[in-house]
Each structure stands twice: as C-alpha cells, then as structure tokens.
Amino acid sequence: MAEDRAVAASESEAAAARRRVEALWRIESARIVATLTRVVGDFGLAEDLAQEAFVDALAQWPRDGVPPNPAAWLTTVAKRKGIDRRRRLARLDDRHAAIAYSLAEQHRLAAIDHEPPWDPETVDDDVLRLIFTACHPILPRESQIALTLRVVGGLTTEEIARAFMVPVSTVQQRIVRAKRTISAAAVPFEVPSREELGGRLASVLQVVYLIFNEGYAATAGSSWMRTDLAGEALRLARIVSSLVPDEPDAHALRALLELQASRFAARVDADGEPVLLADQDRSRWDHDQIRRGRAALAKADAIGRGRGAYALQAAIAECHAVAPSTDGTDWARIVGLYESLAEVAPSPVVDLNRAVAVAMAHGPAAGLAAVDELVATGAMTGSALLPGVRGELLARLGRRDEAREELLAATALTRNERERAVLLQKAERI
C-alpha cells in the first residue's frame, strides 16, 4: 500500500510539472522567442529552439522537479541548443560568441518582470521588437497577423483559422511563407524608427487587439479568460500609444483595452466560473482603470481626426463602464455606436453585437429579426456565437423548444469548456 501511495504521489507531481510547463508556454513563450530572436538573429530558428527547450522541460521537470526560475532555465537551455546547433553546422561566428556571452545575463532575465519603466527614446522590449518584426511591410497583412498571433499570442493554427474564418491549411501556409520571407530578407529584429512606424502601425495595433481578444474570451481550453495574454496585450498597447502620441488609433486601442480589462475581476467567480455582464458586481470593477480608459479615449478624440473602429468600440465599452446597471445602460446610444462601427469596420460579429444591443433597446423580437438577417447571409456558419445569441432571444420570447435547440447547437460548436457549461446551464433552465 505504501508503495502504491508513493507511485501515486510521484505521478501527481509529474502531472503538476507537466501542467506547469504548459502554463509557462502560454505565458512565457513570446518573451523567450523574442529574447532568442535578438540573440540568434533568426526568427524561425528562435522559435524552434524555444520549442525544443520546452520539450526538454516536459521530459526533465516531472522527474527532477521544476527549477526555481523556470523562464530563465528555458531561455538558457534554448541558447545552449543554439550554440550546439551552430557547432554542428560548423558555422561559428560572432553571433555564437554573443550567445555564449549572453548566458551570463540570466540574472537580468530572471528579473524581466521587474524591468524599469519604458523609456520612449530607448525602446528595450523584445516582445515589441518581435511584433514589429513580424509586421514588417515585406509580408502581406494577413501573414503579418497570422504569424504574430502564432508566435506572440501563442494561438494554435486552428484558433487563428477560426478567428479569421478560413481553413486551417490556409493559416499554416501563411505562417510558413512568412517565416521564410523574413529569413530570406534578413529583416532586422528591431522597433523601426519613428519615421517608419506609420507603415507598420495598423498591423501592430490589430495584432495587439486580437491578442487581447483571445485573452478576454479564450477560444479553447478550461479557462473563461487568459488574463496573462490580455495583460500582455494591454502592456504593449500602453507602450505603442507612448511611441506614437499623435496617433488617435493607438490611444483609442489603449482606451478600449483598459475599459474591457477593468471588468476582469468581476467576470469570474471564486471557482473561475463565468459571470455574465448582467450578473456582475460592478463594485468589483477597477474604477481607476476605467478612468485611465476614459482619459485615453478623450486623448484620441482630442487629436481631432474622427473616431475609427477602436474609438467606437472604446465608446461602447465606456457606455457599459459608466452605467449603474444593465437596465440603466444607454442601449440606444450603443445601437448607434454599433451602426457607426458597421460603417467603418463592417463584420458579421459587429452585426451580431448590434443585434444584441437592439434587443436590449427595443425588445427581443427586434433583436431576433436582426439576427435572422445575419443567419440568412451564412456569414457566421460554424460559430457558436450566432446560435448562442439566437437561443437567448428565442428564450426571452417564450419559444422554448427552439431556444433549447439553438443553445445546444452552440454547445457543440464552442471549444471553450467554461462557455460550453454556461450554454448547457441556459438550455437546462429553459
């Protein structure tokens, strides 16, 4: 019996170590790849080395235990693998010496989360360099975004494909071609000069936006949110808005992310279960963050170029942030903002959100009519969002059987376990 307990304890420790490795990959992979890219000077090689280091961790940590500083351990192992690879290829050069020398920087890597405030005149942020490198104008826009979401956001190709509603093979090809193009063109690993920022800014902002969205509502897995990912996107949005103080879109994006992130503490309960907007304790919202978000939106407006997609979304988030309750929300204004958003950035998701706002402002029948117009286009086939919203509106109209059918259809489409549980609960309560 004692031997069985010892085996069980060992297996439990091994499982915990594997979970730690998987969590570290989600949280630290972008920083490690960025650091390695700066050191080895090759984007694709850096990603390969990082993945090999994580494979080593999966083999060693369950057996030997998790090291005191896992991120530094992974970075060091990856650098050593880079050295070994260069040795095997007999291509030792000055970069090899730089790799060896950089091993002495482990203490700095260990303190990476405690770096001093960013200096806009000396950008020293490897993740930001990684994003600007992946968003180089040499790549098509769709390849820039796919590559950055894969490497920086840690999204799988399946998740990226779903976000853009394209086949997985298309995303895979975009990423492979992008890596080859960057390597062949020897794109420098750097944040471009202020004069060159404009050519990459739109892509960088979109990537930061999409990374935050994945953190705000995780596509798959057992967590409702990925706050680490959302926090990284917010950090980058703050840096970028400081880099380009005269660009309203940068301030608007920061405003949107601050306002959305202000609700994080209230979006889940103590067990990590989702808490929908109508049920959230608004006293738990971060009101300092709301003030920062509103100030950023005011700064974007003050530049005076009109409101773009990020500013309109931030304005919608502001409506929610200042409302005393769901019933006290200015839904008519939100409908108007979504109509403006549909003009500057049309998408089926915007149309669906507008339909929800219409339902809140004018009743479920009006909202359902708007949803059914969207259904007729076939634009969101395969998405859980559409049957999920349609099911809720049907339930409010008392069409219980149809509502249950739609909600169950939505559960079959989502890959997020928490979202599936919420949809099932709704279906069971009807």
From TrEMBL:
<dbReference type="Pfam" id="PF08281">
    <property type="entry name" value="Sigma70_r4_2"/>
</dbReference>
<dbReference type="GO" id="GO:0006950">
    <property type="term" value="P:response to stress"/>
</dbReference>
<dbReference type="InterPro" id="IPR013325">
    <property type="entry name" value="RNA_pol_sigma_r2"/>
</dbReference>
<feature type="domain" description="RNA polymerase sigma factor 70 region 4 type 2">
    <location>
        <begin position="131"/>
        <end position="181"/>
    </location>
</feature>
<dbReference type="InterPro" id="IPR013249">
    <property type="entry name" value="RNA_pol_sigma70_r4_t2"/>
</dbReference>
<feature type="domain" description="DUF6596">
    <location>
        <begin position="200"/>
        <end position="300"/>
    </location>
</feature>
<dbReference type="InterPro" id="IPR013324">
    <property type="entry name" value="RNA_pol_sigma_r3/r4-like"/>
</dbReference>
<dbReference type="InterPro" id="IPR036388">
    <property type="entry name" value="WH-like_DNA-bd_sf"/>
</dbReference>
<dbReference type="GO" id="GO:0016987">
    <property type="term" value="F:sigma factor activity"/>
</dbReference>
<keyword id="KW-0731">Sigma factor</keyword>
<keyword id="KW-0805">Transcription regulation</keyword>
<dbReference type="InterPro" id="IPR000838">
    <property type="entry name" value="RNA_pol_sigma70_ECF_CS"/>
</dbReference>
<dbReference type="Pfam" id="PF04542">
    <property type="entry name" value="Sigma70_r2"/>
</dbReference>
<keyword id="KW-0804">Transcription</keyword>
<comment type="similarity">
    <text>Belongs to the sigma-70 factor family. ECF subfamily.</text>
</comment>
<protein>
    <recommendedName>
        <fullName>RNA polymerase sigma factor</fullName>
    </recommendedName>
</protein>
<dbReference type="InterPro" id="IPR014284">
    <property type="entry name" value="RNA_pol_sigma-70_dom"/>
</dbReference>
<feature type="domain" description="RNA polymerase sigma-70 region 2">
    <location>
        <begin position="31"/>
        <end position="91"/>
    </location>
</feature>
<dbReference type="Pfam" id="PF20239">
    <property type="entry name" value="DUF6596"/>
</dbReference>
<dbReference type="GO" id="GO:0003677">
    <property type="term" value="F:DNA binding"/>
</dbReference>
<dbReference type="GO" id="GO:0006352">
    <property type="term" value="P:DNA-templated transcription initiation"/>
</dbReference>
<dbReference type="InterPro" id="IPR046531">
    <property type="entry name" value="DUF6596"/>
</dbReference>
<keyword id="KW-0238">DNA-binding</keyword>
<dbReference type="InterPro" id="IPR007627">
    <property type="entry name" value="RNA_pol_sigma70_r2"/>
</dbReference>
